[in-house]
Amino acid sequence: MPIKQVFQSGGRPVKVWTDELEASARQQLANISKLPFIHRHVAAMPDVHTGIGATIGSVIATRKAIIPAAVGVDIGCGMAAVRTSLSANDIDEKSLKKVFDQISRDVPVGRDQHREDRALVSAAQPFEAPLTAITQKHPQLLSAFSKNPSRWVNQMGTLGGGNHFIEVCLDESSQVWVMLHSGSRGIGNVIGHYFIELARRDMERHFIQLPDRDLAYFPEGTEYFEDYVEAVSWAQGYARENRDQMMSLVLAALRRHLAAFDITTAVVNCHHNYVARENHYHENVWVTRKGAIRAREGDLGIIPGSMGVKSYIVRGKGNPESFCSCAHGAGRRMSRTQAERQFTEADMVKQTEGVICRKDKGVIDEIPGAYKDIDTVMENQSDLVEVVHTLKQVVCVKG
Questions:
Q1: CA 213 to CA 53: how far, in whole Å?
Q2: In this structure, are residues 114 and 120 in contact, taking their beta carbons and an 8 Å threshold?
C-alpha cells in the first residue's frame, strides 16, 4: 500500500504510512523536518506516535549531524527471535507453566540483575576496554554507577522493564519460536541522558534556536560528535549481545522442561532504536530509526504485536522512500496512565486468554487494548515488507 499522506510545514516533506496521526506526533514530525540538515524527507512508519522530541516510529536521515534524543536513552533496543524444531504437539499448559517459571527465575526482569556469582562476565569482557576508553574521556558517564561500578556487567543478559518481554510463540505451521525484546539496559540509559544533556548545552552555548530543545544535535567536526558516535556504537553492541545472552538463557530454560530440540532458523536480531551510517539517494548520511527497523531488500526483521495478539517475522522490500525501513511494532494508541484508568484486571484476563503471563494490575499498562491494531499496521506497510511467518504467543514474561 502506498504512502498515506505527505505534508510540509516550512521544512522538508514528511511522508506518513498511516491515516492515524495524532496532532502532537504531527507537530513533532514538522519540528524535525525544519532542521537544516534533514536529508530529502522525514519518514513516519504506520505505528507512529508521540515521543520525547522525536516521534516514535520515525526515520530521520541527516547530513553531518546526529540528534541524540532521537536515538533515545534505550540505545539499541530491539528484538531477537529463533525458530526451534519443537511443535505444538511437544508442549502443553503444564510444561509451559514450568517454562514460564524457569525463565522468570533465570532471567532478571525490571530493575533486577544477575547476582555476582551468576554474572555473565565472559560475555561482558569484550565491552570493558572500549567502555574504559569512553569513560576516560567522559568520567561523568558512570557517576550513576559509582556505588555499583559492575552494574553493567551484572545486567548483561537481563530484560529490563516497560514494554520489554520474552515470549514463546507458535507460527502458522505450529512450530515453536522464542522471541524477546530488550536493549542496552542501565548503561545505555546513562550514555543516552549524558549526551542529550551535552547536546542541549552546546545549542545554548552557540545560541542555536530549536523548535524543541529535545532536538539538540551534534554536528560532525564538533567537540562531542565522535565521542557520541563511539559511545552509541558501544551501547548498540551491548544491546545486541544482551539479547543474544538472554536468548541462550531462555533456550536453556526450554531444554529443562521440554523435549530435546534443534534450532531450525538462525537468530534474527535487529535494533529499532539506533543510528547508523548508510547511503540513501546516492549520499552517505546518518539514519536514526526511532521505533523502526531496517528493511533493506532481503533483510529479516521482527514486528511484534502486543502481549495478546499476533507478531510477524518479515522480509524487507528495500523501499527507498522509507529509507529502507518499516514499523517496529503495533505502536501505542494510548498512554500508560490512560490504559490504567480505562482497563481492569478482568479486561487483561480476557485480552490475554490462552497466554501464560501475568494478568495483574501491575501490567495493565501493557494490555493489548492500549496498542494499535497490528493487522492495520501490517496492511499499511505492504510496500515496505512481506510477511515470512506469523507468530502467536503462548507464554509471555514481562519486564
A1: 7
A2: yes
Exposure b/e, 199-219, CB count within 10 A at least 16 = b: bbebbeeeeeebbeebbbbbb
| Crossing angle for the helix pair 225-257 and 185-205, to the nearest 10 degrees | 160
Residue at grid coordinates 530435546: 260
Q: How far is CA 221 from CA 42, 139, 214, 262, in A?
A: 24, 22, 21, 49
3-state secondary structure of 266: strand
At 27-83, the pLDDT tens digits run: 999 999 999 999 999 999 999 999 988 999 999 999 999 999 999 999 999 999 999
| pTM for the model | 0.95
pLDDT tens per residue, range 125-182: 999 999 999 999 998 887 766 666 678 999 999 999 988 999 999 999 999 999 999 9
Q: How confident is the model at residue 266 (pLDDT cuts 50, 70, 90)?
A: confident
Would you call 328 a catalytic residue per the annotation? yes
Q: Supply angle C-alpha 109, 177, 307, rounded to 5.
A: 50
User: What is the pLDDT at residue 104?
Assistant: 96
Contact 211, 54 (CB under 8 A): no
> Are the CB atoms for 13 and 7 separated by under 8 Å?
yes
Cell numbers standing for residue 298 = 532481503
In the numeric block, which cell numbers belong to residue 253?
A: 530454560
Q: If we measure between CA atoms, which residue out of 124, 122, 123, 182 comes closest to residue 152? A: 124
Catalytic site residue from 164, 181, 328, 389: 328
Residue 271: CB partners within 8 Å, gap ≥ 6?
A: 76, 77, 78, 236, 239, 240, 289, 293, 294
Residue 118 φ then ψ, to 5° = -120, 5
- DSSP class of residue 374? H
User: Are 214 and 27 within 8 A, CB to CB?
Assistant: no
